[in-house]
Each structure stands twice: as structure tokens, then as C-alpha cells.
Amino acid sequence: MNVRVEHATPSSRVGLALSALTLVALLAAPLWADRQELRLLAEMYAYVALASLWNLLAGYGGLISVGQQAYVGLGAYLLFALSMLAGVHPLLAIPIAGLVAAIVSLPVAALIFRLRGHYFAIGTWVVAEVFRLLASQVSALQGGSGTSLPADIVLSIAPTRQLREFFIYWIALALMVAVVGGIVLLLRSRYGLALTAIRDNELSARSNGVDVARIKYVIYVLCALGTALVGALVFLQKQRISPDTAFSVNDWTAFVIFITVIGGLGRIEGPIIGTILFFVLRQSFADLGAFYLLMLGAVAIGVMLKAPQGLWGLLVERFGWQMFPLERRLVMNGERTLPGSIRAPTN
Amino acid sequence: MEWVNTILQGILLGGLYAMFAAGLALIFGIMQLVNIAHGDLIVLAAYIALLVTEALGLNPLLSLVIVVPVMALLGYLLQRGLLNRTLGNDLLPPLLVTFGLSVIIQNGLLELFTADSRKLQAGAIEVASIQLGGGLAVGILPLIQFVVAVTVIAALQWLFYHTALGRAFRATSDDQAVAQLVGLDNRHIFALAMALSLAVVAIAGVFLAVRANFDPTIGPARLIFGFEAVIMGGLGSMWGTLVGGIILGVAQTVGAKLDPGWNLLAGHLAFLTVLALRPGGLFPKVQQR
User: Fold this and answer.
1) Interchain contact, B261 vs A121, CB within 8 Å
2) pLDDT at residue A338 in the model
3) Which tens digit of pLDDT belongs to each residue from B70-97?
4) N or C: fewer beta carbons within 10 Å in chain B?
5) What angle do CA A119, A120, A126 make, to 5 degrees?
6) Cα-flanking dihedrals φ and ψ of residue A30, to 5°?
7) B101 CB near a chain A CB, below 8 Å?
8) Do residues B207 and B257 lie in contact, with contact meaning Cβ atoms separated by under 8 Å?
9) How far from B136 is each of B4, B8, B9, CA to CA, in Å?
10) Does A118 lie at the interface with B, CB-CB under 8 angstroms?
11) What distance in Å separates the CA atoms of residue A182 and residue B81, rounded to the nearest whole number?
12) Could you tell me if B189 and B168 are in contact, meaning their C-beta atoms sit under 8 angstroms apart?
């Protein structure tokens, strides 16, 4: 008997084709977008990446962190330290910052994994606070008041301002594609099956032989890596850093959580939809200041209570769409079985 | 002598942190809920006290007569109207809803009161102190604060183990389904627990506001202090929160004495050390399930 697992559905084929077309258009954005639009797009990519990582952590891994700003700030500070104090080329400093942050996250995870459930969440926040306070003690980077990248380092990215902006834009796009693509590939692997099982029911995943603790540990470290990469890039673009901006709980955790929850938790597409919605709202209402944030908090609470599957979840329920080929369907002798009628083997 | 004084101040500060922690430990013990908005509710209580003292010309400590019932009522309504709907096997909804609540309270206070620092004026009592001899002095206000904290914790402990309400709390905490079978209305019990938690929050908020400047953004740090005291003391133990609060207070004042920049950091490091060495806290009473 010829058995294989098929991931794609008609809607995911359309989705992938549309994604590819969009990607080509976005790659060419320096041709059609002005400087402001490029910056806005790069910022959106950063949020898609951050929200996708948080989604992997919370939506799939069940690890609810309110302290991911720890790794945004760590990545950013490492970038500044490496380029300003160690003379590393800033573009090379981005991956090094990510790797160092991943290494730092190993003992951090060992420590805070001792806290269960809700207390884990606040534990992640304590870690972020410790990082922020340590960063404000680094006198070589001006401590609490923060510092700017010197002109020669900025020039070393690219000689002209325009070229620099293009470079950073493309790196941001590449990073987003790598993060989202990496998560799709991860979810299609057998780890993805285990993660999805954990998402759906942790207890039954464990009783079916999934090593839940180890998978959570790996996911935490991977998310630290990705989050630090994004943090490094975001602050390379800003060219200015301070402990309060780099470790901001509002910017790097509250917004990211709202984006994911409103877009659709535990679904790859959720953070993308959420980011688009978030930026549309922000462009329209940001003048309202604190009131805008208040509104955002209320919307997130409403979504959590009334439609916890989020916007994309509602669309999936209504139309059965999926943008990425993530479904698992068994094909036996060329014939598709109905989803759920036969369980796919795990290996 | 200077160091003894520092440690003494730290112990008294610990009383305040114990009050932050007690409200948090109370609701976690009863419904396994961690209220991320806890710190912001403390700040909200401080602002309500500010309004009350300005409108009625009351001494801040007397304003407790109004602030405590107002916060307790708010807690009851909050639990009945919103938070009860989030309880269940899934950890995410209560966490995200209280996180959203935290953002709402913070930004609501910013809109209403601006980002300016405020402080409650308690008059002459603020600078009064008792000389203990040998250069040691204790401020009257920190002393009152500490005594109130001990009283609050003793009262909670008594309520838990010697009253019908406490029995209902413990029953619901042990097994929700069985508690309902024997006729307890969980929704009402949970709401009462939140009311009690916010009553403690109200007391903590007023003392916080008399002690130092406050503004709408300081809530999350208070949540973290309370949380650290709870974990260091050991989950499920009310007196443990007092010990946890004292350790945090002493670590912070000693840290600040070494270097002003080390104030908060020393507190966090004390917490992380306890977590590394004694993950169950120093006085674990109830094993976590």
C-alpha cells in the first residue's frame, strides 16, 4: 500500500501563490515606496516576526511570556555593544547578537521553568526587568540615558543613506520570511506534530509519549534567538538605544500580544492578519495617545472572551481557509481520506 | 549602626511589599488566578485616595474608610462581570484579560490624571520618628505601615482558618466541583475573594501613596514586587508573604546603600537566588499541583 501525508489543500495552494506574489512585490518595494513607507513596512515585518515568535511560544508551546522584551532589548544592546565596543561590522553583529541571546536564554529558561503557569509569565517579566536594570548600569553605553550609533558605524552599513535604508528594509523582509517560513517548516516536521498536540491538550500529548518539557525548552530558546535578531535589527534601524525603549513592555510585549490575540492565537496566519489590522488602527487612531491604547486593551479583552480563536480563526471556521500547507491528510493509494478518519503515524 | 538602621528600614518597607503580596497570594490560592493588573489596581487605589483626600480634606489614612469599600466593591464586580468568565482549564484567557485590564487602567489613569507624579500629604506624622537610642530612629509612618501589614496578614490568616467564609474559600480552593456540590456558589465565592484582595490592595495603595511619589506607570513594578514576595515566601502561606516581603525590602535597601543604582536589582537578584536554591519558596505550605 502506498501511503503518504499530504499537507496542501486548494486554499493553501492559492495562499502560497498569493504569498509568493506579495513577496515579489514587497521585494521590489524600494522601487515603488517612498522612505516613510519603507520604514513603516520594515516596522510591520518586525512585528509580524515578533508576533509569530510569541505565537509559537504561547499559542503552540503554551508558554505565556510577558517578558519577551528581555530578548528584544538584549539583542539590541548586544548589537550596540558589539559594533561600538568590539568593532564588529553591524550587519555581522545581528546574527552574533541572536546567538549570544540564545545562549543567555539557556540558563534563564532553566531558572524560570521552575515557575508554573501564570507565575511563569510574571517570572519572564522579572527577567526582562533584570536585563533592563543591568543595561542601565553599562556605563560604556551611557547607562540609563542611552546612546546613539556613531556616524562611522552607520556609514559602514552602506555609504549612502538611501542604500542603507534599502539594505535594512531587505534584511527586515528576509528576517520576517525566515521566521515565518521557519515556523511553517517546524510545524510540518514531527516536532510540529508534537507542538500541535501540546497546543490542543498538553496532558494527552504527554501520555502519547511527547517529551513536553524538552520541546518547551527548545521552543523557548528558539524564540529567544529569533526575538533577539529582530531586536537587533529594529534598533539598528533606529540607530539609538536606551534601556527604557529597548526593554519596553508596551512596545515589545503588549502590542505583540494584542496583535496575536486579535489576529488568531495558535495559527500561523494570525500574527500576519493581526499586524496588518494593528497598523491600520495605529495609522488611524494613534493621535488619540493613551486613549488608543485603552481601546486596544478593551478590544483584546473582547476578542479573548467572545472569539478566542481570533479574526483568522473566525475565517477558518467560516470558510476552511488556510494560507500555508500545514494540514495533515493521509493519502492511501492515491485516494485522500477525510481528515480525522485515520490517524497519521507520528514518524 | 548605620547598617542596622538600613536593615530596619528594609524590614519596615517589607511590610508594604507583604501587603502587595497578600492580595495576590489570596486569589491565587483560591482560584489559581494571577492578576496581572494587581499593581495597576494598587495605583488606582492611590488615585482614588487622592480624589477622596482632595474632595473631603481628609487625612490620607482616614480616607481608607472610603477607599477600602470602594475597591472591594470594584473587586466583586470585576470578578462577577469579567474575570469569572475567564476561569477554566486554559491558562491563557485570565492572563490575557488581566493583562488587557492592566493596559486599560494604566492608560485610563494617564488620560484622567496625566503623567505627573503625585503624592498624598499626611501632615506632621510623615516626619515624626521614635529615637531608639544609639543613633537608631524609626519613622512613625513606616512603623504604622508595618503594624498594619502584620495586622492585615493576621486577619487574613484568621479569616481563612476560623470563619465560615474562610472554610468556603478553602473548600473551593481544594476542589471546585465538590464545593459546588455541597452548595457553595463558586462565582460568588470567587467574587468575595477578589473583593477581599482589592480591599488589601486599597490599604497597600494608600500607604504607597503616602510613602512616595506615584504616577500611572508604576503599577507593573508593584505587581513584580508582590509576586517576588509571594514566591520567596512560598505559595499558599500568608505568613510566608510577610517573610518574602521583608527579604525583598531588606535586599532593596541594602542594595541601595551599596550603590543607588542597585536598589531594584538587588531585590530581583534576591528573588532569583531563592528561586534557584529553593524553588518552592522558603515556607512552602501547599504543594503546587
Assistant:
1) no
2) 53
3) 999 999 999 999 999 988 877 788 888 9
4) C
5) 90
6) -55, -20
7) yes
8) no
9) 8, 9, 10
10) yes
11) 41
12) yes
pLDDT at B15 over 90: yes
Q: How far apart are CA B211 and CA B209, in angstroms?
A: 5
A301 Cβ under 8 Å from any chain B Cβ: yes
Helix (H, G, I), strand (E, B) or coil at A148: strand
- Where helices occur in A87-189 by DSSP H, the ranges are 90-112, 117-135, 151-157, 161-188
Handedness of CA B220, B223, B227, B228 (dihedral sign): positive
Report for A118-127, A210-219, A227-236, B182-191: range of highest mean pLDDT: A227-236
A4 at interface of B, judged by CB pairs closer than 8 A: no
pTM attached to this predicted model: 0.89
Is residue B83 a contact partner of residue B31, using CB atoms and an 8 Å limit?
A: no
pLDDT in tens, A176-204: 999 999 999 998 888 888 888 888 888 88
Grid cell, residue A218, equals 527548545
Cell 515557575 sits on residue: A115
Q: What is the pLDDT of residue A343?
A: 43
Exposure string of A216-255, with b = 16+ CB inside 10 Å and e = fewer, is bbbbbbbbbbbbbbbbbbbbbbebebbbebbbbbebbbbb
Question: Hey, what's the torsion of the CAs at A87, A89, A91, A97, to 10 degrees?
Answer: -30
B83, B92, B116, B222: best to mutate for the A interface, most A CBs within 10 A:
B92
Question: What are the E-state strand segments in B39-161?
Answer: 129-133, 136-139
Q: Give the gap in angstroms from C-alpha B130 to the nearest C-alpha of chain A.
A: 35
Helices B164-174, B140-162: crossing angle, 10 deg rounding:
70
CB contact under 8 A, A118 and B104: no
pLDDT band of B104, cuts 50, 70, 90: very high
Locate the chain A residue with the closest alpha carbon to B39: A122
Q: Which amino acid is at A276?
A: I
Residue found by looking up cell 514566591 in the block: B231
* pLDDT digits 0-9 by tens, B222-276: 999 999 999 888 776 788 899 999 999 999 999 999 988 888 999 999 999 988 8
Does residue A125 sit at the B interface (CB-CB below 8 Å)?
Answer: yes
In the numeric block, the cell 512596545 is attached to A251
List, in order, residues 6 or more apart from A342 with CB less than 8 Å away.
A330, A332
Grid coordinates representing A310 are: 481570533
Amino acid at A250: N
